[in-house]
Amino acid sequence: MEKDTYKTLVTASEEILFKEKNSKFYGYAYPVTTEDEVKELLEKLKKEHYTARHWCYAFQLGTQQIYFRANDDGEPNNSAGMPIYGQIQSFDVTNVLVVVVRYFGGIKLGVGGLVQAYKTAAQMALEVAEIEERTIDVHFIVSFDYKNMNKVMRIIKEKNIQLIRQKMELSCEFELAVRLQEAAAVHDAFDQVYEVEIRYKDEK
């Protein structure tokens, strides 16, 4: 059966600090849904930590189609961004940005030391974050004449469907959110009702 839940952060995590041979690594985890949010958060952190040496990060967006990016921000290849992304994967979270800000302490850590430090800071940031499981929902638009309101409401109650918004006039329109696993059954239920139209929200 297709998986219809995902895990993400409820709110941004508290700042954590990991120290290694005089270098300081500040870790942050944020819930995000767009790349624009990622850019804004990175800009904010760069202003806060304007004397830092590196702002390395990884993010993952999406529930069914996954999009991710990892950035070493001047550290040796794959020594920062990918270890951070590895923690996003091991916590099994999505729609999330993890940033680790480094202040160089004068002692080089070597690639192995860097990988370990960035991984640890990312792990600590995700450990203090509140993670919750959510359902992947499909949104439907149901259109019908007012006289058919009872038929529509009966299905909504029977199937315990979440009503997102409603427009009640002579011709009515409801937006419904339905768990992915139940979407086909709900679509069929409305589809069989005379004079009631249902379509997926992104279809025009």
From TrEMBL:
Stored Pfam families: Impact_N
Alphabetized InterPro entries for the sequence: Impact, Impact_N, Impact_N_sf, Ribosomal_Su5_D2-typ_SF
Domain (Impact N-terminal) ranges: 21-126
PANTHER family reported in the protein's UniProt record: IMPACT FAMILY MEMBER YIGZ, IMPACT-RELATED
Protein family (similarity comment): Belongs to the IMPACT family.
Protein name: YigZ family protein
Organism: Paenimyroides ceti
Highest classification ranks of the organism: Bacteria, Pseudomonadati, Bacteroidota, Flavobacteriia, Flavobacteriales
